[in-house]
């Protein structure tokens, strides 16, 4: 029996998504640099394995608010290992690793003026 706030399915494949913990990039970066890093990741991610439709669902979830992100991963059949979406699996067992920079902003982000 879980706590009232638990979203764990009976088969244990779905965890409630949480906002990633604060993180700091190795050096201060601008929003434009962060967006370029994200685009490069999403452009190359499918080449590391897994299914394109799962990568697309993970991108949509990463760019959505928490409630919508939860609905996206649940409907795509994504198995969330880490609640911040950094490690997920599809129903076939393929692993999907997302870097924190695609999920949230660093604490040392330089604000564009």
Automatic annotation (TrEMBL):
Residues 14-112 form the DC-UbP/UBTD2 N-terminal domain. It comes from the Eukaryota. Pfam families: UBD. Residues 1-14 have a biased composition (Basic and acidic residues). Residues 1-22 are annotated as: Disordered. This is DC-UbP/UBTD2 N-terminal domain-containing protein.
């Amino acid at each position: 029996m879980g706590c009232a706030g638990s979203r764990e399915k009976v088969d244990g494949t779905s965890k409630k998504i949480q906002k990633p913990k604060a993180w700091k990039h190795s050096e201060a970066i601008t929003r434009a640099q962060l967006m370029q890093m994200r685009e490069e990741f999403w452009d190359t991610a499918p080449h590391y394995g897994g299914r394109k439709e799962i990568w697309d669902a993970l991108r949509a979830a990463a760019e959505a608010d928490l409630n919508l992100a939860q609905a996206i991963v649940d409907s795509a059949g994504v198995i969330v290992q880490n609640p911040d979406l950094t490690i997920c699996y599809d129903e076939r067992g393929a692993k999907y690793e997302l870097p924190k920079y695609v999920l949230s902003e660093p604490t040392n982000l330089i604000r564009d003026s």
